[in-house]
Amino acid sequence: MSLQLHDTLQGKKVAFEPLREGEVTMYLCGPTVYNYAHIGNARPAVVFDLLARLLRRSYKLTFARNITDVDDKINAASIESGKPIDEITARFIKAYNDDMGALGVRAPDVEPRATQHIAEMIEMIETLIEKGFAYEAEQHVLFDVSSYEQYGALSKRDLREMIAGARVEVAPYKRAAHDFVLWKPSTPELPGWESPWGRGRPGWHIECSAMAAKHLGDTIDIHAGGRDLVFPHHENELAQSCCAHDGAPFARYWLHNGFLSMDQTKMSKSLGNVLLVHELIKTVPGEVIRLALLSAHYKQPLDWSTETLESARSMLDRLYGAVQDIAVSDQARAAAEVPQDLIDALEDDLNSPRAMAAFFGLAKELNKATDEAERESLAANMYAAGELMGLLGNNPDEWFSGDVEGAIPSDEIEALIKKRNDAKAAKDFQTADAIRDQLGALGVTIQDGRDGTSWRRN
Question: How much is the mean pLDDT over the chain?
C-alpha cells in the first residue's frame, strides 16, 4: 500500500507509515448524543468509514469512534424534555448508529463512552497536575496552556497573539483566559463523580485523550474529525496528551474533513436549515446520501443542495444500470478485483471524486462488453469496487423499482399521482401543484401526456 494523507499538523500531504508494521490505530471524534445527527455530522462518519475500508485491505486496523454522553448540551436537553439523561443518551446513541448504518457506515471496532472512562480521565488529570501542566482552583482543574510551548502548532495559532486578542472574560479561578477545563464541579441535579477535587464531571477535551489512550495507546496513528474541531478541541487534546505521556506524540497523522453548507449557506438552527439524517433517510436511499457526501474531496467544502442529491442518484442509476440483468456467480465474485486506478485514487489522500471517475470507467467498459464471461467478470469487479466504496449494496432490480430503504415505494408514487389527478379534475390546482412539488422533493419527476401521467425517478 502506498498511501498518502494530508496531515493537518504538517500542513501537507505525506506518505503514511504506521507506528507498528502491519497495524494501524485510528480515532474519530464521534457524536455528542443529545439530538439526531445532522448531515454535517454524517460527513466525517462516511469519509472516515471509507478510509477504514481502504486501510483494512492492507492492515490490521483498530478503529475507535467515541460517544460523548456527558455534556452540558445533554444536561440542557434533559431539563428541557423532563426526561432522564440516561434515557436521552441511550435513545440518541441508537439513533446515531442506525442512521449512520443506513449510510453504509460500518460499526467501529471500539465505541467508548465517556461515562465509562471517568477513572481514566481522573488518572490522566492527576498525572498532569503532578507534572506541573495543570492546576486546581475552586474545585476546578485547568490545563495551564503556557506550560506547553508547542500549543497552537496544530491550528497554526500563535499563543502570544491569542493572549493579546483574547476577548474571553477570565473566570476568577483561571490563571489565564486560554487555560481550559479538565474537571469542573457538578451541582446535585447534574451528573457527577467523586474525585480528588470534589464531586464533578470532566471537561470535553480530556474525554477523548483518556479514551484514545485506553484503547489505542499513548500514540495513535490517525486522529480524524471535522475541521471545526481543529481548535480548540484537537489542539487541547494534543497538548494534554503529549504532556501526560512525557512528550510522546499523540497522533502521527491528523486528518480533517471540510465544512458542509446548505445551498451556499452555513447550517444553523437560527436559519432553520439544519438537515437531520434521521429525517432524510425516510425519503432518500442511504447510498444516495453516502455518494453525495463523497462527491467532493474530503478536505474541501461541500455544498449540500437538491442538485447534490439528484446528481448522486443519477450516478448510482448508471452504476446499477451497468450490472442489471447480469448474473454473477460466487466464483466470479471470489475472483473479482477492484480496478487499480480506483485504489490509486483512494490511496492519494482519499480522492473520492477521482475514485468515482474510475468506477464509471469500469461501468463504461462493462456496457461495451459483449462476451458473457467478460461481462460477468467486469460486473463482479463492479461489485468489488462497490464493496470498497460502500455502494452497490442493493439488488439492481429492487433499486430501480424503489424497493430499497429510504426510497418511496412505487405504489405510494402511484397513489400520490392519483390524488393529484383527482385534484386537477376538481380544479383544485393548488393541491395538484403541491403534490407535484412533494414528488419532486422525493426524487420523482412526473409528466402529463395524452395517455395519462407518467413518472420516473431522478
Answer: 92
